[in-house]
Design brief:
The protein is mostly helical. 56% of the residues lie in helices and 6% in strands. The strands form 2 sheets. The protein has a two-stranded antiparallel ribbon with strand order 1-3. The chain has a two-stranded antiparallel ribbon with strand order 2-4. It is elongated. The N and C termini lie far apart (54 Å).
Length: 247
């Protein structure tokens, strides 16, 4: 059986991953106009960008967003309540009727109402609702998990770029061109051969031979998967900064 594997050593992988992360996060923070150190890991830096965006957008409308010692999710709830109060004060004729009183449901009703009005809505109203819509997408999926994988962190960084960075060709391309989070490795195996009868074999033997081929290919794929797990180890994970904030 032939076997092939391409495996950069782990030191090269870690260095490459760190370089890619730092380069991407440096670019995002520069375009957003923020500063963050490199001492924290990728998840922590991503959370810093989230917090900085929340503080910046709430300050634009003089909305309370809590204090720096509070967690992001707690500060977000404070900011959302303030935003809804501001909208109700400035646009009383458009206040949605929400049966549950849930802030998230009320916010979604505001967004839905603004979309229904379309271009007929007042420009200032549309801008405020658009900001609310973008800020609501800052709340991360799986926020309650204790850890995040590097792929999940990458999803959130890409969301930041998609929602908040516009204008440059690089930002436009990032929305459509998939990019690997870190260096990729390939583990390949060739399945065991299948004995094939001569040309005079009856057609009824074709299905059994295809079943054998399918089994051999599945065995080869599983062997390659186990090779990868054995050499690469468990997935890269970070403490979820929304559950375990720094400090």
């Amino acid at each position: 059986m032939w076997e092939f594997s391409f495996t950069p050593n782990s030191c090269e992988i870690n260095v490459l991953m760190k370089r890619n992360w730092n380069k991407e996060l440096d670019y995002v923070q520069e375009r957003l106009g923020f500063r963050s150190g490199r001492l924290g890991g990728p998840a922590q830096r991503m959370a810093q960008h989230y917090t900085a965006l929340l503080e910046r957008e709430t300050s634009r409308f003089d909305i309370d967003s809590g204090k720096s010692g509070q967690g992001f999710l707690e500060r977000f709830d404070i900011a959302l309540a303030g935003a809804l109060e501001m909208l109700a004060k400035h646009w009383p004729a458009s206040v949605p009727q929400a049966g549950t009183g849930d802030p998230w449901e009320i916010a979604r009703l505001w967004i839905r109402a603004a979309r229904a009005q379309g271009k007929e809505a007042v420009v200032a109203f549309r801008q405020q609702i658009a900001t609310l819509d973008r800020v609501m997408r800052l709340v991360p999926a799986r926020a309650e998990n204790t850890h995040l994988t590097q792929e999940q962190v990458a999803e959130r960084v890409k969301r930041l770029r998609s929602d908040w960075l516009h204008g440059s060709l690089r930002d436009k391309a990032s929305r459509f061109i998939p990019r690997a989070v870190a260096g990729r490795e390939i583990f390949m195996r060739v399945g065991r051969p299948v004995e094939v009868s001569g040309g005079d074999a009856p057609a009824s033997q074709a299905n059994p031979m295809l079943e054998v081929l399918d089994r051999h290919l599945r065995d080869a794929l599983e062997a390659a998967r186990l090779d990868g797990l054995a050499q690469l180890g468990p997935p890269v994970k970070y403490l979820n900064p929304f559950v375990h904030p720094a400090g």
